[in-house]
């Protein structure tokens, strides 16, 4: 189903299922011979969501090679390494921010991110998680059922990021006079271009001097053949349907020209540094993923970290 302005989801459907997909990739990465991440909550969370396709993949009962489409540059097989590299990038970002004395972290679009439960945080750290209500509720309840407890003060903010989330975040206790470390991991592609800009404006307005932001940016799409990209993503999920999971990736994202994240942030007063996925993989000793410049391969994604001067 195509997106609408007020659509909502749980972790088995629509955009919510992408959170389960990336958690399944973290579960597999966690079980690698020489793992670069350890997310012990990923597999139990995926299992609890109950999408058989992801549960079997995470458990090693379904091989990516049996599901991937030869002609698409998007491959399930690439996801564990890509998500391991991405997880390290955002983990390191939060660790550095905490070392620099920042004591408020905001995870925008938290999905099944278990950082509040698995990372070592300073004793006086507050972590805010924002996502749609059903997503927030599911993760909190499932982890509590598993006996897991947050390792920081955790404040959940169940709201759609197209609504007035800044007010909800302030009501939940964010102190806009103290610096904040923000992450937006796997989010921008699911927001319309104008909503991405508004989100960065709002983050900036809520950020004191010295705040930090790390985000994953949709690659430049100006040269992309959108119909071809959509077709490649349709081929991916056609195979998934054969394995029992009825899902359509091609409907979830927003096309249209997007502001360049680095320039947009720099104009708002942030000093921004970008790293391509290829660099994140190499930094972690992980094998390269072929780049294709078609907006479909995860290898084309760029990761930014930024610091604000006000
Ligand atoms: C690919 S998942 C990433 C989840 C998490 N950041 C991670 O990396 O594990 C995308 C997440 O974005 C959230 N999301 C997308 N659009 C949103 C919106 N408008 N409001 C709230 N959450 C949104 C989804 O619910 C989902 O949890």
Automatic annotation (TrEMBL):
Source species, domain of life: Bacteria
Keywords, sorted A to Z: Methyltransferase, S-adenosyl-L-methionine, Transferase
EC number(s) stated in the UniProt entry for this protein: 2.1.1.-
Pfam family, one: LCM
KW Methyltransferase (keyword) present: yes
GO MF entry, a single one: methyltransferase activity
Residues forming coiled coils: none
Any single biological process term in GO: methylation
InterPro entries hit by this protein: Ppm1/Ppm2/Tcmp, SAM-dependent_MTases_sf, SAM_mthyl_Trfase_ML2640-like
Xref: PANTHER family: S-ADENOSYL-L-METHIONINE-DEPENDENT METHYLTRANSFERASE YKTD-RELATED, S-ADENOSYL-L-METHIONINE-DEPENDENT METHYLTRANSFERASES SUPERFAMILY PROTEIN
Function as written in the Swiss-Prot or TrEMBL entry: Exhibits S-adenosyl-L-methionine-dependent methyltransferase activity.
Family of this protein: Belongs to the UPF0677 family.
Protein name: S-adenosyl-L-methionine-dependent methyltransferase
